[in-house]
Structure formats: structure tokens, C-alpha cells
Write a structure and sequence with these properties.
Elements: H1 2-5, E1 13-14, H2 16-19, E2 35-36, H3 46-57, H4 61-64, H5 66-71, E3 74-76, H6 85-91, H7 100-126, H8 129-150, H9 169-186, H10 200-213, H11 217-230, H12 239-244, E4 252-256, E5 284-286, H13 288-292, H14 300-305, E6 306-310, E7 316-320, E8 329-333, H15 334-345, H16 347-360, H17 374-388, H18 395-401, H19 423-428
Antiparallel strand pairs: 1-2, 3-5, 4-8, 6-7
Length: 439
């Protein structure tokens, strides 16, 4: 499959999983000379390779915020400008097959899909269902990112060097569901592992998200409620702790460990100016809507998510402030399950779940008399999701799956709900891959 492994050929899992991948010369260079075949993975070393898969699957800094960038939570800064990779997503101007987010997501996802496939094959030979369950969850998570960004993509469950055409969206969703079902059946309970390892609860949480994306709202709500009732977790009354002392939070279902000695992703670098406590690039900042309209008065989440910092010359910058230092990168937390339950059940039964989020944030509850229709209730849930899950990678796809993204100023047509496939990959596939319409 030239689009993914013109330099990989017949070997897929690299020694770099144990020592950390170095920078590639191009999108396809995965250092096959250091690779390990499935036959070389044994019961003695498979855990080391699984640890490496967790590390390399840790989300890339900028990619983690794609849905916030494109959905309207941010605007560009003077350092990035409206022609940068961030500005292009924010304005919608000049978005084409050279888009940096397309290439980054594609490379990162398929590299880890290949690695997961290799571990799955080896673990099947060793009859280790727990390890298969973890690798299948990670494969499902990678395909979830791909299908929500691009639509149908090549479906690879057995590693190959052949050029493979795009599967349909439904085929990708079917694999995601099948992998998560396996993980639900075979992963360890959360009570017997940690929240930086895939558990049955983590697989259920991602399954609830997937079913919501597929508009199977009642089923999504049912699974979300199972997670709420069975996880042993509780909503964290300290909103700041969730992000700045994540390991102490009471509501983390699954997060990549992101140790500073290993993956070392510092999310704050995207938001904090150079010379401040958490020095960074300051490439995006909260949008005017996020600063002035998103939050109600006295909402404690705004104080955590957005603040002004004063520079040495007396000027100030408005920044996304919820991330500091090197912290675990959250994939699923309990608050999301409450939103899924609320949306899936509808106003009559779901309002109580929405109000529990409001209550834990010391905000007044909504009454059913304020909700005039299911459409209004959905809007209320989506708004509360945006407030609670600000800068956690949800907004744009929430608007896509509810067909509200067309209302954004940077989306001119429904075809732009997805990104263009990287043009370089289409060329490398000898045009076996086809581009998304509209690009």
C-alpha cells in the first residue's frame, strides 16, 4: 500500500515504539530497518510493544484541538495569522489537499493502526485477549478520528503493501463498533486497571460517542448511563483539577499518560505566549464569541478556560488557560457521558442529566417549562457541551453530526464537513485513492 508504506514494505512495528520515534524525513518514513515482525513478539516482550503503542498513539498537540479550531472556539493571533494552518481552518479560505491537519492526522493514525494490527496479530497467536482488547480500542480510536475527518478511508485490519481504495463510511463505522464490542467484552474492568489503560469502561464510553455520531441516540444514552452507574467515578466538583491535576480528578475514564519523559505533549504551548509561565507559541486565542458570549455570568468554567495575562510591557493577551505543564491527555471523562445521556433521552428524561452538570458547576438548573421543544432542548445540550468541553476536541464534529456546521462562516457547503485527503497520499497511491468532492 504505497500511500502508507512505500518505505515500510513487509514490516510494520518499529523498534522506535520502545525508544520513541524520531522525526521522519517525510510522511512515509517509518524506519523499516528497525522494524519488528509479529513473529518476533513474544509473551515476554509484548507488553513493551503495547506500552509503545500507547505512547505513539498519544494525540499530537495541534491535532487534538482540530474541532475547536474549526468549530469557532478560537481565532488566530498575530503570530500565526489568517493564512497559517490555523487561519485556513478558522476562515475556510484556501483549504485544499495541502492542508497540514490532513497530513498530520493521516500519518499519525495509520502509523498507529499498523502498529495496533501487528500487536493484535501477535496477541492472537499468544491467545492474550486483554492485550487484543487494548490494541483494538486504539485502532477504533484512530479510525474514529479518520472517519470523522475524512469520511471513508482505506480499511486495513491486516497489514499489506498493496494500494487500497477507500472503504465506505459505513464500513469504517462497522469496524469501529466491532473493535469496541471486543474491547467491552475482553478488557479489564476500570476497577482493576488505571485510567491511562484501556478498560471495559473506556471502551463503553467511546462506544457511546460512536453511537451518538451514528444518530443511534437511545442506544448511546443506554451505554452512557451504564458508564455513569457502573464506573465508580463521579463528576468532579473542581473543574480546574480535571485538566491541571488530572491524575487527582474523580471523573477520568481514559487518558493517555503523556509522561514528560516519553510522549511529552505540552498542550499549553499552543496558547501561552513566549515568556510567560507556560511559555508557548500563542498561535490561537479564544474567539470573540467564546470570550464575550459563551459563558453565563459567574460560570466557574470560564475562569479556568479563558483568562487575560499581563505582559511585562503592560499589554495583555487573552489565552486559553485550562492547560498547563505536561498533563495526561483526556479521551473520555464522565461529564461527556452525562451529555450523551441527556441528548439521547430527550427533554423529559434527559434534563436531569444536564442539570447534574449544571449543579456540580454551581449553576442554576433548567426547568422543563423553559424547554419548548426537542429542538430547543438539543440546542441547550449542545451549548452546555460547548461550555463544559471547551478546548477538549468536540465542537466542530458536534456541529457536523447535528447538521449545524453549515451555519459556520467558514463552511460554505456540506461537502466541507470533511477535510480533503492529503494530495501527497493520492499521488503515492497511483490515484487508487480518490479525493473528497469539493476539493
Amino acid at each position: 500500500m504505497k500511500l502508507l508504506n512505500s518505505t515500510i514494505k513487509n514490516i510494520f512495528l518499529v523498534l522506535g515504539l520502545l525508544i520513541g520515534l524520531q522525526s521522519c524525513q517525510d510522511d512515509l518514513d517509518i524506519y523499516s530497518e528497525n522494524a519488528i515482525s509479529p513473529e518476533q513478539i513474544t509473551s515476554d516482550n509484548i507488553q513493551f510493544f503495547l506500552n509503545g503503542l500507547y505512547r505513539t498513539s498519544t494525540p499530537i498537540r495541534d491535532d487534538y484541538f482540530y474541532n475547536d479550531i474549526r468549530g469557532g472556539n478560537y481565532t488566530w493571533t498575530a503570530l500565526s495569522g489568517n493564512n497559517s494552518k490555523f487561519g485556513v481552518l478558522i476562515t475556510g479560505n484556501g483549504l485544499d489537499d495541502r492542508n497540514a491537519f490532513s497530513s498530520s492526522y493521516w500519518q499519525h493514525s495509520y502509523k498507529n493502526i499498523y502498529n495496533a494490527n501487528n500487536i493484535i496479530e501477535a496477541a492472537q497467536n499468544l491467545e492474550n485477549k486483554t492485550i487484543i482488547a487494548q490494541a483494538k480500542y486504539i485502532r477504533a480510536y484512530m479510525y474514529y478520528n479518520l472517519v470523522t475527518l475524512f469520511g471513508g478511508v482505506p480499511l486495513i485490519t491486516t497489514n499489506t503493501t498493496d494500494d487500497i481504495p477507500r472503504a465506505t463510511d459505513n464500513e469504517i463505522w462497522d469496524l469501529i463498533n466491532a473493535d469496541l464490542d471486543y474491547s467491552i467484552q475482553n478488557a479489564q474492568p476500570l476497577s482493576q486497571t488505571s485510567n491511562n489503560r484501556v478498560s471495559q469502561t473506556a471502551a463503553k464510553a467511546l462506544k457511546a460517542r460512536v453511537l451518538l455520531a451514528l444518530n443511534q441516540k437511545q442506544q448511546a444514552a443506554n451505554i452512557a448511563i451504564e458508564v455513569i452507574n457502573e464506573s465508580g467515578l463521579q463528576l468532579d466538583s473542581d473543574y480546574q483539577r480535571i485538566f491541571q491535576s488530572t491524575n487527582s480528578s474523580t471523573e477520568i475514564i481514559f487518558a493517555f499518560a503523556n509522561l514528560n519523559t516519553e510522549s511529552n505533549r505540552r498542550l499549553s504551548q499552543l496558547f501561552w505566549p513566549y515568556g510567560t509561565q507556560w511559555a508557548g507559541s500563542y498561535f490561537v486565542q479564544p474567539s470573540e464569541y467564546a470570550v464575550n458570549e459563551l459563558y453565563q455570568q459567574d460560570d466557574p468554567r470560564k475562569q479556568v478556560n479563558i483568562k487575560d495575562i499581563t505582559n511585562s510591557d503592560g499589554t495583555f493577551n487573552t489565552i486559553v488557560s485550562k492547560y498547563t505543564d505536561v498533563q495526561p491527555i483526556i479521551v473520555s471523562r464522565l461529564s461527556e457521558m452525562y451529555f450523551i445521556a441527556a441528548e439521547g433521552l430527550g427533554a423529559n428524561s434527559g434534563l436531569s442529566y444536564l442539570n447534574q452538570i449544571r449543579s456540580i458547576r454551581n449553576l442554576p438548573s433548567y426547568s422543563l417549562s423553559e424547554i419548548s421543544s426537542e429542538a430547543q432542548f438539543l440546542d441547550t445540550v449542545l451549548l452546555e457541551r460547548r461550555r463544559e468541553l471547551y478546548s477538549e476536541g468536540f465542537l466542530f464534529y458536534d456541529l457536523v453530526r447535528t447538521n449545524k456546521a453549515i451555519e459556520l462562516p467558514n463552511i460554505n457547503e456540506l461537502e466541507h464537513y470533511v477535510l480533503p485527503l492529503p494530495g501527497s497520499q493520492i499521488i503515492l497511491s497511483d490515484n487508487v485513492l480518490t479525493q473528497n468532492p469539493g476539493y
